[in-house]
Write a structure and sequence with these properties.
two-stranded antiparallel sheet, single chain, alpha+beta, Herpes Virus-1, two-stranded antiparallel ribbon, 152 residues
Length: 152
């Protein structure tokens, strides 16, 4: 695998972790929560505009106020970077936004930061409390992967 050194974090990263023309890796580019929040808000509006009942500024303020971790398994942004998880066409650099009660819109009081595994497992079938139970197993999986990488 081709690698490049990121001039910002000084880590050796897969070459495809650098967007075209970007000097820093995607994790450094999206290290600021406000930048990740704005990007996620745009994703949600593009995908589900009719189910969005929160404005961009309120969403960004909410996102920035949250612990930078999955609400269900506790995976942190630092760990997410260590795992270098590819999903679709790129790396996971931001949290999915879970609607705690799936039948309700994206609105204040109904949002949770979630890793993509916990969000997919919860779907619209599990309650947030049930997702936390699943999150324990997901956490064990992440810890095993981090240990295999030498990051415990």
């Amino acid at each position: 695998m081709d690698t490049r050194s990121c001039p910002k974090c000084h880590e050796s990263m897969p070459a495809d972790a650098f967007r075209k023309g970007a000097k820093a890796c995607v994790w450094c580019v999206f290290a600021e929560k406000s930048k990740r929040a704005a990007a996620r808000y745009g994703d949600i509006v593009k995908r589900a505009k009719s189910r969005v009942s929160i404005g961009k500024d309120e969403f960004i303020a909410w996102y920035e106020s949250m612990d930078d971790r999955c609400a269900y398994c506790g995976l942190t942004f630092f760990e997410l970077k260590r795992l270098k998880i590819k999903r679709g066409g790129g790396y996971c650099v931001a949290w999915d936004i879970d609607r705690i009660v799936s039948s309700r819109p994206y609105e204040a009081g109904n949002l949770a930061l979630s890793c993509f595994v916990c969000n997919m497992a919860k779907g619209d079938m599990l309650s947030a409390k049930e997702a936390q139970v699943i999150g324990l197993a997901v956490r064990a999986m992440w810890e095993a992967r981090l240990a295999a990488l030498g990051h415990t």
